[in-house]
């Protein structure tokens, strides 16, 4: 028990953890390294074996032991690799270990007493089918590759009552220990592989159009491109504060100024704000900017992109949403009038506050006109758009980086794509007038400093300088990847689509 005390006290460990540490010591006494360095040669994957099963074929695979039922001189188990699970079979007469122990010692000491469910092993053997016609590996050689000293949760099924016991299903545990979630819940890995395929499909779509994927800074001297509270840090060598990016928009526009025709980035953004089922402090956004285009073009492009992705994955999901094109295009103020009965076109801030009070929507004297309109739309309108819908032509004060509408006074050339009651994309005809841009950013700072304590904005002087050199007419769009994945996989919480969502600190005493 001496080794246990080096890193943890016995009181911190469960009985099973103590027993597994004892087995660790016994393995070492036998000369078995529980964490060997040598390469283990794998000749097959479980998926490949099952697809191309050949009786008596000799194979070598590696994976995690998920089940083990030790009988007399013969035992059954199950091994899991990154492609699937498969039954394995041991007999005393045929089993050898990596130390070339005697057959009976390998079986009785090594397998029966020192190997546990959760251990990572390498096995060599030949393929056969049981009397129940189940594909099985008859193991003749076993190598311990990594000893598990913490037991896995064991899911048990009462087949008679069709009840599952001890499943690793607690939401907080699953998110906090995603590694265990991936081990014991096979469907979780398949879901995240689907997320990867969604991103690959988007990337392929954009690459075929000739747009260039780029990288822009995560650490930025100014939290620009959006209104949000940033995470702040300090660079000791430069002696300046830096901010985790809240948006990459202004850097991508600089590249358009520099002569790129179309650029995109899957941007990891960070906002030091609240957490709920659709918000996480760090999230992924696709930003795309294309020169010589406008928001009308971008609406058509976004429609094609979303339709393409939907067509790719519709066979895997039973969607209750229709992606029939063209998507409706509805001015935001028309939407508000439809669902509230109020025409906000010429209303001032105080009038909007009174309407919020009547509609029981959060408001206060510090909120700007833009914020009040946004709150009304989000509370009373957004949830009504289940099928893809473009909400267009937002008031200018809601869109400080957007061109004024060419035909409609006091409105901007902006759209949001709403699907299943949630904003999926936000796009503009990008403002490229440096004088108008500077004036609107200055006005936004006044509103921010005076009214919104949780949000901040600064003027990126270098970005204004870039615009002064001339940026071509440009269309830009930001697509929330996490929300898009939620939509396409029919998940209700953003935590379900992130491998490692942000969590509150774990309570002390949890083992």
Describe the structure.
This protein has 511 residues and is α+β, with helices and mostly antiparallel strands. The protein folds into 3 domains: 4-152, Nucleic acid-binding proteins (OB fold (Dihydrolipoamide Acetyltransferase, E2P), Beta Barrel), CATH 2.40.50.140; 157-184, no CATH class; 189-328 and 387-497, BirA Bifunctional Protein, domain 2 (2-Layer Sandwich), CATH 3.30.930.10. 33% of the residues lie in helices and 23% in strands. The chain is built from 15 helices and 19 strands. It has helices at residues 4-7, 15-29, 46-51, 103-114, 171-176, 178-184, 186-208, 249-257, 295-313, 332-340, 349-358, 369-380, 434-451, 461-468, 481-489, and strands at residues 58-70, 74-81, 84-91, 96-97, 120-129, 135-146, 156-158, 163-165, 212-213, 219-220, 232-235, 240-244, 262-270, 282-291, 329-331, 389-392, 414-419, 422-429, 474-480. The strands form 4 sheets. Strands 9-13-14-19-18-17-16-15 form an 8-stranded mixed beta sheet, sandwiched between helices. Helix 11 packs parallel to helix 12 (369-380) and helix 13 (434-451) packs antiparallel against helix 14 (461-468). The mean pLDDT is 91.
